[in-house]
Specification:
Layout (H helix, E strand, L loop, with lengths): L11 H13 L7 E4 L3 H6 L7 E4 L1 H11 L5 H12 L4 H18 L1 H10 L14 H5 L2 H15 L7 H13 L14 H12 L1
Parallel strand pairs: 1-2
């Protein structure tokens, strides 16, 4: 966990302050950012120029369903899963193009919603296959937030924001809430070595 803060909203200024804080504390630009479609966060991420972004396909599927007629949602979901569970990045890109072509005709709002996220839905394919499951979605952070909400519901109130943060931090620091490791993290050093060779 790099930072933990209470925020009134997810506006650009809030996210921008979080990113600035991480930069001032010496965090180099991350290799990959896994995010939902929040506009404030998207704007703040411009502070890290050139960082690869993976858009959460779970959040995007929720958006697609709001644009899709109920009778077509099962078919649309099947088509969408083809681009998320493809054999490799090339097959995923072909499935993405097929989805856009098909749904532009059947339901243009669905195709437009998918194109809003674009190929950032497929960034995880650039990484080792063993890591795909972990890198595909924001589930790790969502699970952490869900655990925080579950634990704080039992509290009548907190005297200050700092008191709430201390409780939440303590849950992680003392192992009451476990952060999940990224699947395939053992392959990361060799992957990074290849990435550095490309830059050199």
């Amino acid at each position: 966990m790099l930072t933990l803060r209470v925020a009134a909203s997810e506006a650009s200024a809030t996210w921008g302050a979080a990113v600035t804080d991480l930069q001032q504390r010496g965090l180099a630009a991350p290799l990959l950012l896994i995010v939902d479609g929040n506009a404030g966060l998207k704007h703040a991420l411009r502070q890290w120029d050139g960082v690869r972004v993976q858009r959460c396909p779970t959040h995007k599927l929720e958006n697609l369903r709001t644009h899709c007629p109920k009778h077509a949602q099962a078919e649309m979901t099947r088509d969408y899963h083809r681009l998320l569970y493809a054999a490799d990045g090339l097959a995923a890109r072909a499935a993405y193009d097929a989805f856009v072509k098909k749904w532009t005709t059947l339901c243009p709002a669905v195709a437009k919603s998918l194109e809003e996220a674009g190929l950032e839905l497929l960034t995880f394919y650039d990484f080792p296959k063993a890591m795909w499951k972990s890198l595909r979605t924001t589930n790790t952070v969502e699970n952490l937030n869900r655990e925080f909400r579950r634990r704080t519901k039992t509290q009548a109130s907190f005297g200050t924001e700092d008191a709430a943060l201390i409780v939440l931090y303590g849950l992680v620091a003392f192992g009451h809430i476990q952060l999940r490791k990224i699947d395939g993290h053992q392959q990361l050093p060799s992957f990074l070595a290849k990435e550095w060779q490309k830059v050199a």
